[in-house]
Design goal:
Helices cover 64% and strands 5% of the residues. By secondary structure, the protein is mainly α.
């Protein structure tokens, strides 16, 4: 049970040949089968009998298969059908583990609901809860309706053929893209009462508002998120209702960008201010074209290419206009302009080459066969009390080995216990933990100097000061962003190789 537009996003998008309807949020948890995405591609998937290590999203039960991949699908499904008749012991174990994980997830929800109810009746908010351990979860009594839903899911899980088909395609190395649910409604009921409840809930959704909110990128830059998207989405809806296409808006954005460069080339104060205003208008239209495409589902490879090329063209025309204007004003900055242009071209080349290398590495990886429960990314976790005790014993052993290293004169090879965690992995782990602090997330997004911040820096410095200040800021911030980005990519590469 979902909105028509949620299905259209997968079925009608020409950029997705073979793909899935998915979400990165909490929709469907704990019962939706989980998936792992890398660079927009599904690289691991759950089924009732298969494990997904460190998933990043949920599969919502809709699979689109291109004609070129259907022979692979048929071959994998035939093998899976043979295995399902008499599942291997590892498959049965994984299905039993899913029951435990689902129950633990439901128990956490019950505990959270109880704490929220207690907080509503108290004068002050309760202190932050400590992490819940397995033994506390085992003692939680689930409400009858929750228990009944859990039992329905367990009975239905072995017949979830579509998730098995997805695992088969992933394990065969097929390239699967994602179409995201966004803020639309979704439910996968297993009873007539569940269907009726979903039918009642879906009509309560404001579908147009959900589509409009979803048209804005979820992980954009600071300037774009807080200073452009709050109003640009309404311009996108206005354009969509009047028949303007995303490619038309992209073309208008380029024209306005060229006018901004011409205004900068005048070299006088009014020209710098006019150029700054026009550049921000061009950037707003640049946001509007993508939001219109997402709002109306008008995607095309031509549109993506035009958007990328025209963005670069606007930026380089503005650089030229600023340099010409400064020269006409008696302050030649050709060297600074050339350096800024060279740096930005290098950054774009680094970005595209790194993305291409990542896609190539993902395509070259060999996934395990469908017979194996694990996905090759990590060892499945035993959620039982015995598994918890075993992991605790391993941690104690590792701690003892680490303590022994400090006092012994023996070599590392002679010591028992796991090896030390590489420095690169530690640094990257600490860096990801900073994402829990909201303000630092935005600082990290600003540090890479995305296009919104670049255009804002150009407009502000040119309108208030001069092109020389503009190019100095572009060089300083751009150099820092280059070093920052390269350091992060080197770290991720080192961690991936280990």
């Amino acid at each position: 049970v979902t909105h028509r537009e949620a299905l259209a996003g997968l079925l009608a998008d020409p950029r997705i040949s073979t793909g899935v309807l998915s979400t990165g949020g909490r929709s469907g948890r704990p019962f939706a089968m989980r998936i792992k995405n890398r660079r927009g591609r599904v690289v691991s998937a759950q089924s009732p009998y298969h494990y997904c290590y460190k998933p990043s999203g949920s599969f919502l039960g809709v699979l689109k298969v291109a004609p070129a991949d259907r022979a692979t699908l048929a071959a994998q499904d035939e093998r899976l059908a043979e295995l399902v008749v008499d599942p291997p012991a590892e498959w049965r174990t994984e299905l039993a583990y899913k029951e435990i994980r689902w129950r633990h997830s439901l128990a956490r929800s019950v505990l959270g609901a109880e704490e929220r109810a207690a907080a509503d009746g108290a004068d002050a908010a309760p202190p932050e809860r400590e992490p819940v351990d397995l033994f506390e979860l085992e003692q939680v009594e689930l409400p009858p309706d929750v228990t009944a839903e859990l039992q329905r899911r367990l009975l239905a899980a072995p017949e979830d053929a579509v998730s098995l088909s997805l695992v088969g395609l992933v394990r065969a190395g097929v390239h699967l893209n994602n179409s995201y649910l966004r803020n639309l409604f979704w439910a996968r009921p297993l009873s007539r009462d569940g269907i009726e409840r979903a039918a009642e809930r879906i009509v309560e959704y404001d579908e147009d508002k959900a589509l409009l909110d979803s048209a804005v990128k979820g992980a954009d830059g600071f300037f774009t998120t807080f200073f452009v998207s709050p109003y640009s989405r309404y311009i996108a809806r206005w354009c969509a209702h009047r028949g303007f296409t995303p490619n038309q808006i992209t073309t208008v954005s380029l024209i306005v960008g060229i006018l901004a460069g011409a205004a900068f080339a005048v070299g006088e104060r009014w020209g710098l201010i006019a150029g700054a205003v026009l550049l921000q208008l061009a950037f707003t239209l640049d946001c509007v074209d993508g939001q219109t495409a997402r709002y109306t589902r008008q995607f095309s490879k031509l549109g993506a290419w035009l958007d990328s090329v025209f963005d670069r063209a606007k930026e380089y025309v503005v650089f030229a206009g600023l340099a010409i204007g400064a020269s006409r004003a008696g302050d030649p900055v050709w060297a600074l302009a050339g350096a800024a242009l060279t740096l930005q071209v290098m950054r774009h080349a680094f970005d595209f080459s790194f993305a291409a290398s990542q896609h190539a590495a993902i395509a070259a990886a060999t996934p395990p066969p469908v017979e194996e429960t694990g996905d090759g990314f990590g060892v499945p976790v035993d959620p039982t009390a015995a598994g918890v005790a075993a992991r605790a014993a391993e941690r104690e052993k590792a701690a003892a080995a680490a303590a022994a290293r400090k006092v012994t004169t023996e070599t590392a090879e002679e010591l028992e216990g796991p090896p030390r965690v590489p420095l690169s992995r530690k640094v990257l782990g600490y860096w990801h933990k900073l994402d829990r602090l909201g303000a630092l997330v935005w600082l990290k997004r600003m540090a890479v100097f995305p296009i919104g911040e670049r255009f804002a820096a150009i407009s502000i410095t040119a309108a208030i000061w001069s092109p020389r200040v503009t190019f100095t800021v572009l060089l300083a911030w751009g150099a820092f962003a280059t070093l920052y980005g390269m350091a992060g990519r080197v770290l991720r590469t080192l961690v991936a190789r280990r």
